[in-house]
Design a protein that fits this description.
The complex is a heterodimer of chains A (about 650) and B (about 220). In chain A, the strands form 3 sheets. Chain A has a 3-stranded antiparallel β-sheet. A two-stranded antiparallel sheet of chain A has the order 1-4. A two-stranded antiparallel ribbon of chain A has the order 2-3. Chain A is mainly alpha-helical. Chains A and B meet through loops of A and helix 3 and helix 8 of B.
């Protein structure tokens, strides 16, 4: 046994550990122990991932089954490691959150904690398989597994959540079919090509071999463009790229609290991972448009896949962000932002220079930290008050100060303001846009940030500021088992904001794995021509400004005085607890008055059109085979076909 | 004959004197007005604020909340119902605060002298720093009134806000006479007087005893973990 273990390399042991986690989560019937055990197992996985990152390089698994004559393989490089780190980290914190009091209440409500625990573990396992896949077939298989696991986790909440999960499944399934079509296309053509190119036929679907096929011109440029489009749609659906984003917000928002935090933090980033693989590992030469110009006679360079993707990314930033601003449920608001922030990641990556791609990839980590913190804080509020409705909360800062702190740090990160980590990645993306002279894209990204700032203020104001409702007088802060992951995440947001060099070294490993340029960085920031970023100095300036104000406010003169929220000015009126003075309904009425005509639900209508068309087709086809003499019709068709 | 103003300098440590004077110099040049426009005098304020007379050149600006305002401007007759609101607003303002009464109505009731529903003299209820008489005073008069308030502040002579704390019993008594013994605002004036060391001989008395008996204090919400 020990010899066998010795044979395992680190990737094997990671996958084995992950599988053991799933098994224990399923088998362990004593639910109050399983929470702790599974948390420890995630911790062990995190340690393995950390060892792999510090060792560096590429890890290939011994797991190499054959399927239809193709060799499947698993191989984890810097990019996969980066995503694996985020996956395991967010799973660890989500499990820690539900291991204590939260899980106890969940069990007392008569729900199956075991199902939640094991589905989360299954998600992590399938996502690790996906992130370590080294060829198109293993990518597709683990993609499907991960999709089904995510569906099961979403569907667990039942009711509306089940409906949203089914909505997701329809999208995910159509996306997967597109991916499968491309894989099948490549597989059938590649076998003959393998002999010509002298490549091992069994390993023909490996990313490097497929890239070789593309470069050798086995497929014509229009064919390659079609493949690229199909793959981008297939993977873009998971990422929530416009116009395939409609499923995501309800599905994540309605998942069970900590599961929603996990899904919102990393699940849809798998789409980004696959897009990076497709864009840079397989179709690298098409993406920047250099081949297009040489193969088509005319000037093609103005509309390259790169510019097109950048504009889709900007649209993905703007529209969902402004939809988020109108949400009246905290979880829906955050989930819509999850879609919008994905746009920044793609925008940075398709810029393909050292700053932009570092910013885009760094944003994945940053987004995971603050999105998980925000979702957990909102879950805590739901745990205590029973609602996330932004019109039914308010003033909770005096009752849940630590949750407030977590939410505050999280929204500063989400809005991309210093000194939190979201600022660093957005700064890098902006710098890259300005360097490349993409002013319109830059303006689009800034409009998105403006919407983000406005809507996160709405979030924190309606939940925590303003006057406390009578029914929330006796609310308490959540227990330490729930606070610990929230505080860890807050510390991470602040720490990686102060010292972005820590995540940037993982990002650099990821970027060099796909052959993108790597920016020069140090612990405090990024060095670039014409202005570098040093977060230590930025934070010092910021804190000295706030610090002076805080010193004056708290220590000089001692003249500040706390008052009751009802001791407030309302044009001289006396305020009473029965008559609330908390402006939350119809927030941003003035702004909404201006921009309301822009909300047209275009995408919902588009979706409805597609659904109606499908129904119409199905209906008319069913007329054919439901008619009384359908067997005669079938005979005629068969005869015609044979003839 | 023109009267010559004699500045009476304060005694004490030269350093603290310099600091006080700097403080008052700055304070006099940045005054935020909270308008409590109760009567017809309000019509004279738009020209004062806008380009023709332009009070902003004196550093005076309108402000929407009492906590941030320095001057409470009351422009006309004050009915008893309104006076309750004016008192609440005045007590919510942070010190140092100044009160300007515009129009005859605030001085002596003006043409509403015989009304049963108006408070006749504003300074029975709160210390007034400056009256600008007239029915109504022209914008020039208001500007000139603002200038004299600024001069008083700069010389350190406009300390009427302290009188409210020092003679709280008197003012509270007059308020109780109008509003009844149950009268109270959420603001703890006696507590503030004690906090800032402004307790005078007239702070406590029979009226504050009544207040303390009926008062339902509105405590700040404590931060709970």
């Amino acid at each position: 046994m020990s010899e066998f273990l010795f044979e395992l390399n680190m990737l094997d042991s990671l996958l084995l550990l992950s599988a053991v986690t799933v098994a224990i989560a399923i088998l362990c019937r004593v639910e109050y122990i399983s929470g702790g055990v599974v948390t420890l197992l995630y911790l062990a996985q995190l340690v393995v991932v950390g060892m792999m990152i510090s060792a560096g390089g590429v890890f290939s698994s011994h797991l190499t089954p054959q399927l239809f004559g193709y060799e499947l393989g698993w191989l984890l490089d810097g990019l996969g490691l980066y995503f694996t780190l985020i996956t395991v980290g967010s799973a660890l914190l989500a499990t820690l959150y539900m291991a204590g009091e939260w899980g106890r209440r969940y069990r007392e409500q008569g729900k199956s904690f075991r199902a939640l625990q094991s589905l989360l573990a299954l998600n992590v396992f399938t996502m690790q398989l996906l992130l370590a896949s080294s060829d198109l077939l293993s990518l597709f298989i683990s993609w499907e597994l991960a999709s089904w696991a995510a569906f099961a986790l979403m569907a667990l909440s039942g009711g509306k959540g089940l409906k949203a999960a089914l909505h997701y499944m329809i999208y995910a399934f159509s996306g997967a079919m597109l991916v499968f079509a491309v894989v099948a296309w490549i597989a059938t053509t590649a076998v003959t090509a393998a002999y010509q190119l002298d490549i091992n036929g069994a390993g023909i679907l490996q990313f490097s071999s497929v890239a070789e096929l593309m470069q050798q011109g086995i497929f014509t440029i229009p064919e390659q463009l079609l493949m690229l489009t199909l793959l981008l749609i297939g993977f873009g659906i998971k990422m929530g790229l416009l116009p395939f984003h409609l499923w995501q917000a309800p599905a994540y928002a309605l998942s069970i609290g900590p599961a929603g935090a996990f899904l919102g933090a990393i699940s849809s980033r798998l789409g980004l991972f696959a897009i990076i693989v497709v864009l840079f590992k397989i179709f690298g030469s098409i993406t920047d448009g250099s081949i297009l110009q040489s193969s088509f006679g005319f000037e093609f360079a103005s509309v390259t896949p790169k510019t097109l993707l950048a504009w889709i990314a900007v649209a993905t930033i703007i529209f969902p962000t402004f939809v988020a601003m109108r949400q009246n449920d905290a979880r829906h608001l955050l989930a819509w932002h999850g879609i919008g922030q994905g746009g920044y990641m793609l925008l940075g990556l398709v810029m393909m220079d050292s700053l932009g791609s570092a910013g885009g990839l760094l944003h994945v980590f940053n987004h995971a930290t603050y999105q998980a913190a925000l979702f957990l804080a909102v879950t805590s509020v739901i745990y205590r008050t029973g609602t996330a409705d932004l019109n039914r909360l308010g003033g909770l800062v005096v009752r849940m100060p630590l949750s407030f702190m977590t939410l505050l740090i999280g929204i500063i990160g989400l809005a991309g303001l210093p000194p939190m980590n979201g600022f660093v990645s957005k700064w890098l993306v902006y710098r890259s846009l300005l360097d490349q002279g993409e002013l319109l894209l830059f303006v689009g990204a800034v409009i998105g940030t403006l919407g983000t700032i406005l809507s996160v203020y709405k979030l924190i104001h309606n939940m925590f500021l303003g006057s406390l409702r009578k029914e929330h007088e006796e609310v308490r802060e959540v227990s330490w088992s729930m606070l610990t992951p929230m505080l860890i995440l807050s510390a991470l947001i602040l720490l990686t904001g102060l010292f972005p060099g820590i995540p940037l070294q993982w990002v650099a490993q990821g970027l060099s794995a796909v052959g993108l340029p790597v920016a020069e960085f140090n612990l405090g920031g990024v060095m670039a021509d014409g202005g570098s970023l040093d977060m230590v100095i930025v934070s010092m300036v910021l804190f000295s400004g706030f610090g002076v104000a805080a010193l004056i406010f708290y220590f000089v003169g001692g003249k500040s005085k706390r008052v009751n929220p009802l001791d407030n000015y309302a044009g001289g009126h006396f305020l009473y607890a029965s008559n609330r003075y908390h402006y939350s309904n119809n927030f941003y009425a003035g702004l909404m008055h201006l921009i309301k005509p822009w909300y047209k639900n275009t995408f919902q209508r588009l979706e409805r059109v597609v659904v109606t068309l499908l129904e119409l087709t199905a209906e008319s086809l069913s007329r054919l085979y439901m008619r009384p003499h359908s067997n005669q019709l079938a005979l005629i068709i068969v005869v015609l076909l044979l003839w | 004959m023109k009267e010559i103003k004699v500045e009476n300098r304060r005694e004490g440590n030269i350093l603290s004197r310099v600091f006080d004077e700097l403080n008052e110099f700055c304070r006099a040049r940045s005054l935020f007005i909270l308008h409590y426009c109760t009567g017809c005098g309000a019509i004279e304020l738009p020209p004062v604020m806008t380009s023709r007379f332009d009070m902003e050149r004196l550093g005076v600006q309108p402000m929407v909340t009492p906590r941030q305002a320095d001057i409470l401007l009351i422009t006309g007759y004050v009915s008893i119902k309104t006076l309750k609101r004016v008192m609440l607003t005045y007590e919510q303002m942070g010190s140092p605060k100044y009160v300007i009464g515009i129009c005859s109505c605030t001085v002596n009731g003006g043409m509403y002298w015989q009304s049963y529903a108006t408070a006749k003299k504003l300074d029975e209820y709160m210390p007034v720093d400056l009256y600008i008489a007239g029915c109504m005073p022209r914008p020039e008069a208001i500007i000139s009134g603002l200038r004299s308030l600024i001069r008083n502040i700069e010389l350190g002579e406009s300390n009427n806000w302290k009188k409210y704390y020092e003679n709280y019993d008197y003012y509270l008594g007059n308020q109780q006479k109008l509003f009844g013994d149950e009268w109270q605002t959420p603001v703890d004036v006696i507590g503030e007087a004690e906090h800032y060391g402004l307790v005078g001989e007239g702070t406590y008395g029979e009226h504050t005893e009544i207040l303390q008996r009926v008062q339902q204090p509105l405590k700040p919400l404590e931060m709970r973990l």
